[in-house]
Design brief:
The chain contains 10 helices and 13 strands. The longest helix is centred in the middle third of the chain and has 19 residues. The protein is elongated and about 60 Å long.
């Protein structure tokens, strides 16, 4: 009998924040013959993990993580799911392997953007002797492909809004602020901040109801990977709530970066998009003169 995938690299562990992504990654790992261990982040992980070997761990508890890594024979780690809160200084527990990185960690937590924080987290995990993988390496079927993904295609006006919002999202990403932007009639009306995509879309809906955004032009949401981002963590993602909130905001559709964005519950997302009359598509910034 052959050994499970990746056994020679140690057991796979999944750091589970909020949302459904950690579960999809865990199920994909099982289908590949893995027996994933789940680090359930306290006050973040919101799914039940019955049937999985798991433990609750604080966001800044590197000492606790190190003990579990050794006890469970973990050699590979995937970061997945949302994390709303950064750990307070009192919540940071280090071991000898991460002690030398403590000044860098504190400075990053105080002043760094999300991408800087995630790179710091990856460095701390690697200091425990583990290799950090991207969620897409375990569950590649979640990645968006290029072109329309549902039955509805973007119009010419929509493509112009996609191009405009993509420019804004790329600039925003370079500042390590957010991953999403909304363009309506060629005008950037919203940029994603720490509140997240759904809250940004709620803001767009409110602005439209107040007459601050044209009721005659729909517009689009674009989500891109940050140019400098380590793709092993926090790839842009959309789910059913993104579609529902885009529809409430009166948008024509959603575009995400092909090969570098995740679609959670793809079938349900596309069914909801078709029912709402909006498009979902994957775009490729590397295509000369076009996006898809």
């Amino acid at each position: 009998m052959s050994a499970p995938a990746g056994e020679h690299d140690g057991r796979l562990a999944i750091v589970a924040g909020s949302g459904m992504l950690p579960h999809f990654v865990a199920e994909a790992a099982r289908e590949a013959g893995e027996d994933p261990f789940i680090f359930r982040l306290s006050n973040e992980s919101d799914q039940t993990w019955d049937g999985f070997d798991s433990a609750v761990i604080g966001v800044g508890d590197m000492a606790g993580l190190s003990r579990l890594v050794k006890a469970k024979g973990i050699g590979r780690v995937v970061l997945s799911g949302g994390v709303k809160r950064r750990p307070a200084f009192r919540d940071i527990h280090v071991n000898l392997r991460s002690l030398m990185k403590l000044p860098m960690a504190v400075k990053t937590l105080l002043a760094g953007g999300d991408d800087a924080v995630l790179k710091m987290v990856i460095a701390l995990i690697e200091a425990q002797g583990c290799r950090v993988l991207g969620a897409h390496e375990i569950a590649p079927d979640l990645l968006a492909s290029t072109g329309p993904l549902g039955s509805i295609k973007p119009s010419g006006d929509d493509m112009r809004d996609i191009a405009r919002a993509a420019e804004a999202a790329e600039a925003l990403g370079r500042l390590d602020v957010g991953q999403g932007a909304v363009s309506v009639g060629g005008r950037i009306v919203a940029l994603e901040g720490v509140e997240g995509t759904d809250a940004m879309l709620a803001r767009v809906a409110r602005l439209r109801s107040e007459g601050r955004i044209s009721s005659y032009r729909k517009g689009v949401l674009v989500k891109l990977c940050k140019p400098q981002q380590d793709i092993r963590a926090d790839l842009p993602a959309i789910g059913r709530s993104t579609v529902e909130n885009a529809a409430k905001a009166g948008l024509a559709g959603i575009a995400v970066e092909a090969g570098r964005a995740l679609i959670i519950e793809r079938a349900a997302v596309l069914e909801a998009a078709d029912a709402a009359g909006i498009f979902v598509c994957g775009i490729d910034l590397g295509l000369p003169g076009e996006l898809m």
